[in-house]
Amino acid sequence: MKYDYSYFDKGIGKTIAFSKVELERDVKLIHSWMNESHVIPFWGLDGPFETFKQHLNKALNDPHQTLYLGCLDGKPISYWESYWVRDDMIADYYRFDAADQGVHLLLGERAYLGKGLALPFLRAMVRFQFQVSETHRVVAEPDIRNEKMIHIFKKCGFEPIKPIELPDKTGLLMICRRDCFERK
After folding, report:
1. What are phi and psi of 43, to 5 degrees?
2. Are strands 101-107 and 75-84 parallel, antiparallel or unpaired?
3. By three-state DSSP, how is residue 95 classified?
4. 5-183: which CATH architecture?
5. Below-70 pLDDT ranges, the chain
6. Domain residue extents for the chain
């Protein structure tokens, strides 16, 4: 698997890496994660394989986002969507800058839940997104019910802005500014 970004996290003593999703290679794995009980309430993409495969193919062909597998020492354990805010519906909810990026994520592998990995992975992804020199903010809009992820976003440097009504959920708009992230 080729990695687009790799980072050795001293805090966990492991390498976190992101590899672009490939439909045929990854669809079965990501579909299995979408059907995990801890994922279903927040993603709502559980269901038949062929339906999900069509969804994933459409997402892969959407130029405003890039999909990644998040790997821990080479093992895929998470799914990530990195997107350009200017071309996303979230742009309707705040005054965005042209280079603002957004992030969606899930930890799919049940064996890795509760191991303190969400924060190191999120930090690695935000660090990856900030490699674009023009990007000064990364946004997220976790489901307002997902208190664990909201806590992790805060620990990463995301500030809660306001609740927002999205087509599929009530989200909490959160923004991570480069200067705040770098201080943490």
Report:
1. -110, -35
2. antiparallel
3. coil
4. 3-Layer(aba) Sandwich (3.40)
5. none
6. 5-183
- Name the 3-class secondary structure at 137: strand
Question: Distance between CA atoms of 87 and 77, rounded to whole angstroms?
Answer: 28
Helix (H), strand (E) at residue 6: strand 5-9
Which phi and psi (to 5°) does residue 20 adopt? Answer: -60, 140
Span between the terminal Cα atoms of the chain, in Å: 31
Rounded-to-integer distance, Cα 82 and Cα 103, Å: 5
Beta carbons of 7 and 127 less than 8 angstroms apart: yes
Tokens standing for 178?
A: 């480069």
Asked if 29 and 83 count as a contact pair (C-beta separation under 8 A), the reply is no
Question: For residue 42, what are the contacts with CB-CB under 8 A and spacing of at least 6?
Answer: 106, 142, 143, 145, 146, 149, 169
9 exposed, middle or buried (CB, 10 Å; 0-12, 13-18, 19+)? middle
Contact criterion met (CB below 8 Å) for 45 and 51:
no
Angle of CA points 43, 56, 141, to nearest 5° = 35
User: What amino acid positions are annotated as catalytic residues?
Assistant: 141
**Separation of alpha carbons 3 and 15, rounded Å:** 11
Q: What is the pLDDT of residue 183?
A: 85
At residue 137, the pLDDT reads 98
